Amino acid sequence: MNKNAIYPGSFDPISNGHIDIINRALNIFDNLVIAVLNNSEKKSWFSVEERVNMIKELYGNNKKIQIKSFDGLLVDFMEKENLKIAIRGLRAVSDYEYELQLALFNSQLSKGKFETIFLPASRENLYLSSTVIKEIAINNGQLEEYVDKTILNKIREKAKIKRGE
Ligand code: ADP
User: Fold this and answer.
1) Choosing a second label site near 162 at 20 to 30 A (CA), which of 44, 126, 135, 142?
2) What CATH number labels 4-125?
3) Of 25, 45, 38, the residue nearest 157 (C-alpha)
4) Chunked in runs of 10, what are the mean pLDDT values of the chain (165 residues)?
5) Binding site membership of 116 for ligand 1 (Cβ less than 6 Å)
6) Domain locations in the chain?
C-alpha cells in the first residue's frame, strides 16, 4: 500500500526549515502533497500562486511530490484528496500549543479518521520562520542561509516592492 501524506502550511515563503521537513517526510512516505493555505485572515507577502510557483521551482520535477493550494478547513481538503495523515513541523516550545490545538481539532473534526504526525525541527532551523525571513529581507539582510538559492531573487524583489522602491 502506498503511504501518502499532506504537508499543509502558509509557506510565505518556503524556508529551509520547510524544506528540511519535506525531505525528511519523504524518507517516511511514498508521496507527499505540499498544500499551500490560501488564508484570508493571515496577511501574506506572496499570493497563493506565487507561493505555489516557488515550491514548484524546488520540487516541480519530483514525482513523489504534488503541489496544491486550498482554502477552508484542512480536514475538508484531506477528505477531498483522500489523504489521512498530515505532517507538521515543531520548532521551539512556542509552536507546541498551537500545533497541538490544530491536531486535536483536525482529529475531532474528522472523527478520528485523520492523524497528525509531528517532525521536530532540525537544530539549525529551530528558530527559523517565514516571518523572520521577511524581516531580514525588508531590511536588506543576508538570506542565503535561510532559503533556497532558486527563490532568493523572488524574495528580494518582493522586499523592494514592500519598501516602496
Ligand atoms: P509559519 O509558522 O512560519 O508561517 P507555516 O504555516 O508555513 O509556517 O508552517 C507550516 C508548518 O511548517 C508548521 O507546522 C510549522 O511549524 C512548520 N515549520 C515552519 N518553519 C519550520 C522550521 N524552521 N522547522 C521546522 N518546521 C517548520
Assistant:
1) 126
2) 3.40.50.620
3) 45
4) 92 98 98 93 88 97 98 96 97 90 95 96 95 97 97 97 91
5) no
6) 4-125
